[in-house]
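Researcher: I'm preparing a figure for a lab meeting and need a structural model of a single chain. I don't have an experimental structure, so a prediction will have to do for now. The sequence is pasted below. Please return the structure as tokens so I can convert it later.
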Amino acid sequence: MREALLQVTGLNAWYGESHILHGVDLQVCKGEVVTLLGRNGAGKTTTLKSVMGMVGRREGSIAFEGADIGALPSNKVARLGIAFCPEERGIFASLNVEENLLLPPRVRDGGFAIEQIFDLFPNLKERLASQGTKLSGGEQQMLAIGRILRTGARLLLLDEPTEGLAPVIVQQIGRTLARLKREGFTMLLVEQNYRFAQTVADRHYVMEHGRVVDMIHNSDLEAAMPKLHEYLGV
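Model: Understood. Here is the structure written out token by token.
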């Protein structure tokens, strides 16, 4: 196993009085793509938000590059080089594509220049002056990913990057994630489409009721399909 970039140990999390995560353990090594699989409500998105410091209460250990970040607020977590791309994408309706791209500050060296983002997503260059929410769902997802690549973050937390997208756009997102992996990015993504996850990930954690109940290496996923189908209820 390579060096762990993110190490989560015994993570508990709450929304108000609701206890959502119950002792989650996982790790993501440098250069890996790791997915969180599970049914709706299993705690996958809450795990990403907990890493980012976006839940009301957390207990347990969250270590990034060996340093405990479990008590840090989200703005300080982001400045360490962790970026979150939410399922709802967070595109600002009052800003055009260029303004949305330029809005987040750079937190570290090595962020993508605008031209590099256009190389990944040529559609965005063509829609540069368009209002962010006038884009198609696929273009909004490209914009959301492109925006966090500008920041210099090296750990990307992606929540349902293919949700609701046409198959041709899903393929483009897959090619993009594969390229980012080749360029040294580390990714933890929530994904309902396990067939898509199989094309990009090294390992998969399966979550049920706020707990990690299994870890499957991608090379073993095909053999584990009956068990995975049982976990996912498909």
